[in-house]
Amino acid sequence: MTVTSAITTGRARSGPPAGRGRAGRAGRGLGRGTAGRGFDWGQPFVYLIALVVAGLAIGPVLYVIIGGFRTTADLNANPAGMPDPWVFQNYATVLGSSRFWGNVLASMILAFATTAGVVVLGIMAAFVIARYEFRGRQTLYTLFTAGLMFPLTVAALPLTLLLRTIGLHGTYLGVIIPSIAFALPTTIIILVPFLRAIPAELEEAAAIDGTSRIGFFWRILLPLSMPGLMTVGVLAFVGSWNGYLLPLLVISTGTLPQDLWPLPLGVTQFSTQYSQDTGAVLAYTSLAMIPALVFFLAAEKRIVGGLQGAVKG
Amino acid sequence: MPALLESAGPATSAGPAPSPASSTRPSRRRAGTIRKRIEIAVFAGPALVVFLGFVILPVLLAAVYSLYNLPPAFKWENLAEPERFIGLDNYVRALTTPEFLRAIGNNFTILVLSPLIQGPIAIMVALLLNRRMRGRSVFRLLIFVPYVLAEVIAGLSWKLLLQPQGGVNAMLEAVGLGALQQNWLADPNIALWTMFGILTWKYVGFAIILMLAGLQGVPEELSEAASIDGAGWWQIQRHITIPLLGPTIRIWAFLSMIGALQLFDMVWVTVAPTVRSMSTETMATYMVQQGQFAGQPGYGSAIAVILFLISLVVALVYQRFALRRDLAGAVTTGVR
């Protein structure tokens, strides 16, 4: 019973439905506080579960990060122990290598260029689909949304051959352009309803004031659609940053030196090359995690929100 | 964010565009029409070109290439050489190759097991944690970490942990379970199950987050009423909360199944090629192995087409039988 009442109070919802005002919630909170129940035995159990689940989730990550502070000899002697002694040599070596920074730089270039391309092309196409009246508009929308049916995996091989033909194989552009193309369907699906929701009255008012449609796009639509653009941009950035299949097919088989490969390729390459030096591989791997983790911390709300939006519609 | 997207109106069709005030005088209207057409072309053109050229064209090319026996150094002229056209032979070869058939089986094993095992875990954890508690946001952050890491990074981490002399075996030894030590990723008999364990670790946090979000949409009044009527915690969850969570569960299962069919990165970096070909091959790894690294783009393209058709059928069947209440027409038209 005690568990029940705790569950039902739950957490305040983000979007309060009609008829559920501040007063109602405050009243409930008061009622809960004055219920005068004894100690809630469900609570420690819940914390225990939460602790176990969270521990399982980050345990392996911690192992890799802490392992980076150990010498390879120490790791071989006692794989499950704590560092004895703590050494910073592995991390220092990786951080001092031009290779690691080259990998990071390559990933940054790919991710930023992809994000910029997706956002710019996506908002422009979504603008036309959402706010222009013309024949073929519905077809255009359906075409883009049908892109969801074609995952990168299916197109990967012919795409690689195509890039060879047009001379983009082995280049960053050969990864960036297809990444943009495959991110467009999701982008347009998220942005079109967003742009559509901006009331027509605004556009009419702008037109009466002598603003062209392009002016309306720049001065009104763009600022208003910032939240949507952020979501779309974050999804594109994370997708590009974590992407492996395209770089594998386009860059690892090309002529670009390993120092300039993007991070996922660089890490796999490093771990193959130095497979005997476990400490160094652990350090390299954990340093490779950091950009994604930092970015995630900064954009957690947008990522989770974007995913939920994509799922809930 | 979800609230914004939801309030954005019906997404099932592009609907009529809100038409702004436009002049009715013929001459200005005509000039306006031309201008409008130019605007449409300039704005939608770039996206359309990139999309057609790098998504649609390659997919169509896959279908064409799959009918040819192409050399590793492919040139367009190869398509004109009559002896290279082999009809459906690539498909026949794929569907009679035990390695590829096992790959399909592996994909389906993961497709079926993911919802069956990750689903209940995620739902139970989400139900337990759907309450006001300290550190809730920290918890959400922590369980989301595996999902945010690239599959490659996560896979390499596990590869190090699961070495014969790695952390997992050492911990088993330390707690007296040394008998359970395995060569996790190199023993063909268990490598697929190890792989499934890693995938569960990586993706169950995502499922928990989605379920928690779904629970936000379950009205508290219902469970309060049930509780007043004397229903116990589990009765409330079983008969009220979980059924109301249905849409979230079904859509999560859909995403998980599609992901299972496309599985590539994790298997590719985690399992050594020899073990992979014996036990954990997936359709995508087999496709890349044959099409790219064994230099048979035609055969690889046939695998790609088969992978596409299987995904399509799974999506349509699932939509027909499970999703139809949640999103009418979403998969067939591609519109959410």
TrEMBL record, chain A:
It is found in: Cell membrane. Residues 104-299 form the ABC transmembrane type-1 domain. SUPFAM superfamilies: MetI-like (SSF161098). Keywords: Cell membrane, Membrane, Transmembrane, Transmembrane helix, Transport. This is ABC transporter permease subunit. It comes from the Bacteria. GO terms for biological process: transmembrane transport. The chain crosses the membrane at residues 45-66, 104-128, 140-163, 175-195, 216-238, 281-299. It comes from Agromyces agglutinans. Residues 10-20 have a biased composition (Low complexity). Pfam families: BPD_transp_1. GO terms for cellular component: plasma membrane. Residues 1-29 are annotated as: Disordered. It is a multi-pass membrane protein.
UniProtKB/TrEMBL annotation, chain B:
Keywords: Cell membrane, Membrane, Transmembrane, Transmembrane helix, Transport. Pfam families: BPD_transp_1. The keyword ATP-binding does not apply. Coiled coil: none annotated. It is found in: Cell membrane. One of its GO terms (biological process) is transmembrane transport. It is a multi-pass membrane protein. InterPro entries: MetI-like, MetI-like_sf, UgpAE/MalFG_permease. Its main location: membrane. Residues 7-25 have a biased composition (Low complexity). The chain crosses the membrane at residues 38-68, 108-129, 141-161, 190-213, 251-271, 299-318. Residues 104-318 form the ABC transmembrane type-1 domain. GO terms for cellular component: plasma membrane. Residues 1-30 are annotated as: Disordered. Belongs to the binding-protein-dependent transport system permease family. This is ABC transporter permease subunit. The lineage of its organism: Bacteria, Bacillati, Actinomycetota, Actinomycetes, Micrococcales.
